[in-house]
Every structure is written in structure tokens, then in C-alpha cells.
Amino acid sequence: PEQVLLEPEVLHVLAPPFVSRSQNESVVVSSHGKRRRSFLRKKREPPPSAAVTLHQGDGRGSNEDVSVPKDIDLMALPQLCFPGISSVYVYKEQFHFLVFTDVFGNKTHGVVMQCYQPVLVILSFCNGLGSAKFPKLFSAFSFCVISKYPYFTALKDCLSCLLIQLRNCRSSEIEERVKEFAAKLSLVPIPPPGQLHLMFTLRPLTIVLPSREDKDQPAIDLDLHLPFLCFRPQQLLQVLSCLLQEQRVVLFSADWARLTLVAESLLLYLQPLSWQQPYVPVLARGMLDFLMAPTAFLMGCHVSHFEEVAAETDDLILINIDSGAVSTSCSDTVDLPQIPAAAADCFTQRWQSLQIHFDLNQCHRASCHDINERRAQRRAWQHNLNHDIQRITLELIVNIFRFCVCHLNYEHRVFNSEEFLKTREPADQLFYKKVLETHIFHSFLKDRLNRKMDNYTRMEISTRSEMQRYDATVEVTRRPTMQEIQARRRSSITETGPNKRLGMSLPNLRDEQMNIAFYRNGIIMSDTVRTPPKHVKVFKLPDFPASLSFHSVQSYYSELIQHLGKAIFSVQNENSTMLARFYYLRGFINSLCLRRLDALSDFQNLYKTDTAIFPTHLVTWLVDSLQRDERHQADRRPELKRLILKPDDHVKKFELPRNPLPLAEFVRCVQECGIVKDVATIHRLFGAFTDGQSKQLDPELFRLFYTFWKETEAEAQDVNLPTQVVDHLDNSECVYKLSSCVKTSHGVGKIAMTQKRLFLLTEGQPGYLEITKFRDIQEVKIASAPFLLVRIPSLRIQTSSRPEVFEANLKAETELWNLLVKEMWAGRRMADQHKDPQYMTQALTNALLMDAVVGCLQTQRAITAASKLAYFDKIKHEVPMMVPKTTSETLKHKINPSLDLAEPQTVHVLLYTPGQLTCDHSESVKNPKLWVALSGGRVVVFDAASWSMLQDCIQVGELQLNCMLGLVQEQVWIGSQDSVIYIIDTHSMSCNKQLTEHRHEVTGLTVDAKDQLNSQQLFSCSSDGTILQWDSASLKVKRQFHLSCDRLSSIQIHEGTLWCCE
């Protein structure tokens, strides 16, 4: 008989939610949702020669609409579910996998199961003598499960379970069984990122959903070693090279399932590089024209089309998965640059150490009588193998791109590709030149410029050689001084090889040429890649309910919440990371049940356990959906306030004002444009512009001021001083102001001002002549100097460093320079007297503002206006800030914790945590720190060795902080007026835990100094007299007692006795 070709069509679309409160309980499961678009079932007319009867199953009419959920486009789905020719004469169940990619690069994954149903065909004879049976035929139909997550193996197992049920049911029951199957799958939550997998039973199999390693990586639910079975190392490296160079790649196989699994594995090998081009791993027979696309792509089709595709299209990379051959549409060989040999050799060595055959691993084990036990053994083996493959492929990517970071400019987000290419071996330069032009590499660079701390970065750092570690410590400063630039130039000329100290740190270096090649290639064979995978815990979900009514589903969720509660209790004192995963899951299930406050409470607990998996978008939705009574309840629960109060996450672009500016708007604009933050200084600037006569500032004047400030800033950065001048400056000095060329008592030249001194740049032969350091000035005044028949204004500076007076004929600039020098002199005196360098920084800011005011006003009142900004010069005459002698003799250094804030803040608590003053690469050795608690719940951290600011703001609540306590250099506990104890992790410098057991403001914290390692004698007190004893490991209250007093202000343990102070 002649082959009958049938065009596939969509019959049913099932999408959650499958049950709702309002639905009739008699209808157990139904396709639920509003109608958005529809596919019309086409009524097919049988051919004249035969009448074919297809069993519809439900017996409904052929003109019925099928509802399609939002955001799902099913136009191409029928073809993809039947990508090849379906024969009506043979039947065989089979699976294959799909990946859909939208225009934004978001992926959706599908698993397709093809089944066959016998069709009874009746041939009617025209002579009316009767009828006869036609040979047995089969009608193909398929089920496709679509998910946002790539759970290929798990969904295949689920469909396999469905297949067993369908074999034993009548055609009229198929639709109901499929609806029940879909409803059960919709009850399964997705595991949070980390080491917690979920298990559920779908008779007869037990199925596991693996979790993602972290939130930026996809879940891996396939056999990553499949390409290792299909290709030899050389061919696999050739395929990866083609993908890195973004070629037009086509995969071929006789097995549709193999196409997607191999394609997905190849893209996972490239992580963290992410494929940016069109990606269609399965092309149906009617989609082959996709291969004519002019752009790069990765696609797959049946091997029967190999010759046709090779003949019709040019410049394709043809990869036959079944034979392991890699060729082009024009040749049997691939003429493309290969992956650098050193990285390829390292990868090949790692390949040879892999054990990629399960049966070899199981030779010594007893035979399993339980299929689920056997599957569990296979999963464990596959999990370990996937981990090993991920590590060696990541090592390959690290070895290829290791030195890219050496040529990144983070400030301007620039990658110097030309300099990078110069450092590569000549044989590898063509490969890198092609890769550097690809979208996949540009995406990779974005993450590097964002300093993303992912697996790539961690491996790159952990596998650095001694030489690479040394280079990494020589970080380019944000704005290098001119002296540093000169020093580098001298060093590049005089140093022709590794210096002596560096060479001594590498005892195994023998041949210099070998060392240079080793350094250039950056190949490190390290045992780091052999690290075992992290321990995984599997949580079993309850059995699915027998009935899928609304009440049954709610009961199922309640049972799941109970199981999660038991799991939380079992790991409370053991593993905070696993505890966070259980809290996350319970919060998610509570959200499904609309228990919003319980869900928020569970997500709030993530702050005590692991904030890395905090579901910001879900919590935002929960907060927005709170009913009025729920919001009132949440407001009465202090632990939920953090989630209810929304932070200001609005981002805007700075724009120059267009309307007159009152004082408040002027302050905002000046702070937004980054000129100065201090409110008092901005108020003085506003007074300088308005002269006290106007309450508003003209927007045009602000534009002139802003433009002049930015131009002056740029000019200061572009000052190019001769080497002999730079040699006289300190490393931290920059030139902030240059005069015009003037006559002075020491010759003709330009006066230059840095933050430390004045010096003269002599004309003619460029030279350096120091005028004075600001601390050496004794007197500054305006005089007049004779010039021909007139006298012109001049500036005279008396200094202690030389007997003669320095005089400069600055003419029109005299008054401005007089203001600048006096302000810098006054600031220097204040800084020395108070031992606070911030006075000098503020004086420099005042001087620059005065220069900008004079530059943009250009009127006779400009100097008068600028003088309003001479703050330190005024206060030294008005109310001298005297420091007591004892304080002056004792004071060593003064720091300003409010430096980056708009206004000075009150210091409420200080905490010193000890460490070591010596620098060491060991992570366990840390410098001492000074913790400063400011108003409004701000904590600022200083390095007590260098007194540099380590952390400018750790926000812990909104109210005043009353006490701080350090625990074994790992945690800092902080008691607040809001009754919460905040815990800061000293490694991440973040507040990741909170204790809310107190009901009044926390006023004291203490720990037994003799028992700090165990931290069992840890107490806290609140103002109402409540004292709690804590177990610092589990963060649980061990004991609680109450003192009758007006206000308990502090507690302290001394010699085993707890002392309390009112």
C-alpha cells in the first residue's frame, strides 16, 4: 500500500493552575485559564479511495478550539514533536528533547514522547458484496512537557511512567490520565540553588530533581559524558574551537534525542561563556531552510539530510555525532585555528583520567534487585562524573583565557585586545584574534569587568603560579600619579628579565625560555580540579494525593509543610546552609497556599542562614499582595519589618536643572553630580552664588559652574610634568591648580599647587623650584610690585624654609591665589593640630570651589563671593579650636567615620577586634579592625593597621545601635534600639543574620573571655531587665531570666560572675 503522510496538529494544551477554589468538586482536574489564542482542529476529509476512521477518544466535534496559555507559541511545536516522517506501518515509542529560545535569549525546554495507537481501517466495496480488513496501521501521537528548567532526565522518567499507565487504559481515558499526570507535575517545586535535591514518586519510579549549583548556573540533568563517548579528544576540541569562534555549526544524528543532549553538553562545556547566537538543536524536515541563515548558529538535523545540506549550503561546520567526524560543507577537513596547544594537551591528559563507563565502576558491586536502588547508584555515579567533567572543561576555558584579566581596565571598562594578542604565542594569535571578535567573548568580558566571583574566577585565582600571584598584587591605581608612571617607564627599560627576588620565589625555574613560555601560556596542572563534589542531601516529597481536588491539593501542601518543618528541626544545630534551603522551600509552598505572612517569615529566616538564595522578586510580590489585616499583623512583627520596608531602588541619570534652584534643590543637584557631599559646604557655596540676596539660583549659572568644575578637573589630570619635576613630588601628589606664566622673585614660570606644597615650573629649560610647603608658611599677603611706570598686584609669601620672601606678579589672579593659599595654609594647621588629615582634604575642596566660583562668575564681586568659602581661614581668626595639651600629646591619629556622608554622624559604639599587624597571604591571618556604630544603624569598619576604611556602610536596622561584641574573629554581634541583635559576618562584611527574641531595646552584650572559643557563656540584655543566654552556634536561647529594675543599661562577666548595671 501507498505511504500515508499525516500533518501533525495540537489537540490539547494543559497549563497550571489545574485546580482552583471556585471549581466544581465533581470536576477533579481540568485545563484552566483564560482563552488567549486558539488553534483550530482541522477537519480532514478522507481520500476518495478509502475512508480512514481515527479514534478521537473523547468523541467531540472536530471544530473545537484548543486554549493556548500566555507566552507559549505553538506554531512550530507540531513539527518539532514529529521532526521526521512518521510511518503508519511501524510503531515504537521514542523520546527526544527540544530547546526553544526567544529573542531575548531566554530558554524553554521540552521533552517529547512519541506513542502509537492502532487504527482500524474499513475498505468498502462498490459492488456491495461486503468488506475486508486492511493490514494493521498505527496513528502516531506525542506528549510534550515544556518547562523553564532543563530537567531532561527527570521529565523523561515522568513521561515513561505515564507511558505505562497509557498502555493499560482505554482510548477514552487517555485525556483524563494526561490531565491528572500534568496536575501532579505542577505540584512539584523546583529546588533552590545549592546542595538540596528533591525526590518524588511517580509509580513505579522514584524521580530526582537536581538543584543548580548556584543561581547563575542552570541545573544539570543529563549525562555530560555523552560527547566523550561520541568523539575523540582531538575532534571534541575541534568542535569547541568552532563554537568559540562562532561558526555556523550543524549537528547530525540518526537519533533525534542525541542531538539536543550533545548540543546542551557542548554549551555547558563552554561555561562561563554563554552562546549568544541562534540555537535550534532539532530541526524538523520542514525547517531545513533555517540553515541558510547568514549568521552564526548551532543547529541539528537528521543524518539523512547530511548530503543534501552539504551540497546546498556553504561554509558550514558539519558534525556527525554518530561517526564522530567533523568536516565542512566544502571539505572533509576543518581549516580553522585550533585551541592553543598547551591548553589542549592539558585537557587531553585530564580526559584520559576520566572513568566514563558505568559498568566498569559497578563490577565489584552486588547485583541490585530493586530498580530504584539501581537508579540511585547510577545517579550518584553520574553526579560525580558530571562534576569531574565540569571541572576539566572549566580548567580548559581558564587556561585559554587566563591572561585576559591582565589587560582589563575596570574603571573605563576597556579590554586592550592588541596588547593581549602581543602576549600570545605566534601560533595561537589567529585563534585568539577570531575569538576576540565574537559575541560569546564579549559577554564573557562583561562578567570579568563586573568582577563576577564565579567558578571561573575562583579556579583562575586558585591555580595561579607564583609569578602570576605576584603580578596580581601589582594593581594599577585608579589614577596613577606622574611619579608612578615615570617609575614604571624606568623599570620597563632597566628590567630585561625576572628580578632577583621574584626568581628566588620560584625554585624550580631552570631555563629562562621555558619560564617565559610557561608564563605566557599560563597552563597550571593543579590538583584543584580534582576536588570532590559537595555533599548532596535529597529531600523526599510526600506521595501525590489520590484525588486532585482543591482540598486534596491544599492537604498535600500542608503535609509538605509539615515534612519541611521536621527537616528544619533536624538540621537546626548542624548546617545553616541546608537550613536555608528548607526555609526557602517552605516559604515557597506557603506562598502557593497564600499564607503570605508565614512565607515572609520563612524568607526572613534566610537572613539568619544564607542570603545568597533570597528570592527578591517573590518577596516583593508577597509584600505587594498583602491584605490590609495581614499588613497590620506584619507591622506588629519586628522580624518582618525588613521585608515590608521597601528600599529605594530607583536609578536615574543626572541631568542639569532647567528651573531656578531653591537651597534644597541646589543641595540635591550638587550631591548628585558628585562635586561635594557635605551639606554645610554646599550651603556656603549657595551663599557665595546668591550673596544672600536671592533665595533661588539661576539654572544657567549652575550649568556654568558645573562645566567649569569638570573642565578644571580634566585639565588637572592632563598636566604633563617633566621627569625631573615629578621626581620631587610625593607619590600621592597631584597638581590641582596652575597659574598663568608670571614673573616671580625666582624667575619666570608657572606656580603649581598640590595638596601639600607650592612650587614653580620655570620657563625655558623646564625645572622645579619649591616655593613652600603649606605647613611652613608664616605669612601671606597682597602687595604691589613696580612695572615700568605703574605698580601691579603681587602675592608675597613668607616661609620658615627660606629667609627671603617669595613674590609673584600674579596681576588679576592675585586675589584668587591669596584666598587659595590662605585656605590651604589654615587647613594644614588644623590638620596638624588635630592630627586629622581630613581637614586638609576639606581645605582643598574649599580651594577648588573658590576657583570654580571665580571662574564662572567673571564679575567684580567674584572674589567677594569666593571668600565666603574660605571656611578654615575664617574660623582660625574667630574661634580657634584649641586641643588640650594632654590630648594633643596622647593623640596619634584621628579618623572621620562620617567621611562619605552628607552630614557628620554621632558615634555611639566602638569595638576593636584584634588581629595581626603583619601582612600575610594566609586567609586566617587578618589585620585588627575598628568597628564604628553611627546614627541610623550605620556601621563603618576601619583597618586598624593602616586606618584605611574597609567598609563605608553596613546597614543594620534604622535605629541607634547600643552595643557591639566580637566573637572569635568570625562574627560581630550588635544590639539595637529596635530590639534586634544583628550579626555581621566578618568574612563577607555583611549582616546576614538577625536575632529577634528581645522585646525591648538591646542595651548590653557580653561573653566569658575564658570561654570565647566555645561561646557558651554569651549573654544579652534589654532595657526592660530581660537577660538571655545564647548558644552562638545554633543561635538559640539557652536560658532566660528577668531583673526588676527601671532600666538595665549593661552587663559584664567577670571571673565567672554576671554583673548587671542599671
From TrEMBL:
PROSITE patterns referenced in this protein's UniProt entry, alphabetically: DENN
Domain UDENN positions: 33-455
Listed name of the protein: DENN domain containing 3
Organism: Cynoglossus semilaevis
Keyword line: Guanine-nucleotide releasing factor
Keyword Zinc tagged: no
InterPro entries per record: cDENN_dom, dDENN_dom, DENN_C, DENN_Domain_GEFs, TPR_DENND3, Tripartite_DENN, WD40/YVTN_repeat-like_dom_sf, WD40_repeat_dom_sf
Stretches of the chain forming a coiled coil according to its record: none
GO BP field: regulation of Rab protein signal transduction
PANTHER family: DENN DOMAIN-CONTAINING PROTEIN 3, DENN DOMAIN-CONTAINING PROTEIN 4
Domain of life: Eukaryota
Matches recorded under Pfam families: DENN, TPR_DENND3
